[in-house]
Amino acid sequence: MSTVEAARQGLVSARLSRFPRGRLFGLLAEGAKYSAIDLAVGTPAAPETAPELIEAACRALRGGTNQYGLPHGDPRLRQAIAARAGGDPETGITVTAGATEALAVAMLTLVDAGDEVILFDPGYENFLSAVAMAGAVPRYVPVAAPHWRADPADLAAAFGPRTRAIVINSPGNPTGHIMSREELRQIAELCERWDVALIADEVYADFVFDGRSHLSAAALPELAERTVVIRSLSKSHAVSGWRLGYLKAPARLTPALREVHVAVAGMAATPLQQAVAVAAAEPGFWALRDDLAVQRDIALSALREMGAHCAAPEGGCYVMADISPLTSEDCEEFAFRTAREAGVLLTPGKYFFSGAGERGDHLVRLAFNRSVSTMEEARGRLAAYVP
Could you tell me the domains of the chain? Predict the structure, then answer.
């Protein structure tokens, strides 16, 4: 029985019927049948996890750091995060069980049932899950290739008296778009006009390309007091299984965020927090071991050599490609067939759209946070494949 059907029968909460369908797991099972190279999910295989970070975790575990710690995070870790990302370690930084928990905490803290939350479309499906969990209503603003920027009129039209929050993701998943100062200022003006909170998912902030830089929403004075920033070590330090993220927020919001965090997760893993705190004290900890620029360019070449159209992502670890020049298939059919016949697993682009119309049916997403050798192998398989 599907979750939607269970909700209709009253067996589970009605809010679950509004969760995204989670179709990626079925795709992964299909790819496993054919030993396909997985370029579908964002689990990092590059950069490599730092050996010194692993050793610090082992020392913490063996040294007896296996019980509860401070709910809002190891003090040394919060200090290291504040030194890196700004914010006050005592009144502005909260360590969470990954960015996923941070997102849920931010949404549950800022939004009431029936409120409207603005999401960009396409976008990361967990944003919709968080909105549904809070009992809120998503309000979508479409963005389109090649630049993936919202039309200012569409953005302004999405705000109204029921709007409580807007979620941005920069660099974006799945688009790779980095929000400019101009875009952030437009959002700031609308947030101020309608008294709206901003949730800024910045987990890919370390991965930017072609001389660009990432601008945090919280860095704009007009947004600083209404922005909750979400970041994580999952991708930047390749410890996605450690579930270590954090919230950076204004002092006036932090106590409420921490109360919800305690109710949702209690705390993040104490020994792993200590490990990062110890490792972060060494020079070069925050420097990327691999900026993924080479992998991005291999991904672009592989897709373009197939005949797909794609713009170079400005940041993050994903590229969206238009497959309509090489096939008339729906993107899901194409992805399953590419896994079966080419041995490379891609994600259907429609998985990231709200479901209104067929805007994503001609798109696929490729994750390139893999080793260079894996990306070259995938490129070779795709080059040998004739759709």
Answer: 3-48+289-383 (3.90.1150.10), 67-280 (3.40.640.10)
Closest CA to 302 of 378, 387, 210, 385: 378
Claim: this prediction has a pTM higher than 0.90: yes
Residue of 44, 63, 69, 43 lying closest to 269 (CA atoms)? 69
Is the sign of the CA dihedral 252, 253, 257, 260 positive or negative?
positive
Among candidate residues 173, 209, 203, 120, the one with its CA nearest the CA of residue 320:
173
User: Counting beta carbons within 10 angstroms of the beta carbon of residue 334, is it exposed (0 to 12), middle (13 to 18) or buried (19 or more)?
Assistant: buried
Q: What share of the chain is helix, strand, coil (3-state, %, to 5)?
A: 40, 15, 45
- The answer on pLDDT for 356 being more than 70 is no
Sheet-wide strand order for 93-96: 93-96, 245-248, 227-232, 197-201, 163-169, 116-121, 137-144, 149-150
Per-residue model confidence as pLDDT tens digits over 69-86: 999 999 999 999 999 999
3-class secondary-structure state, position 350: helix
Measured distance CA(13)–CA(17) in Å, rounded: 8
**Angle 83-87-88 from CA coordinates, rounded to 5°:** 90
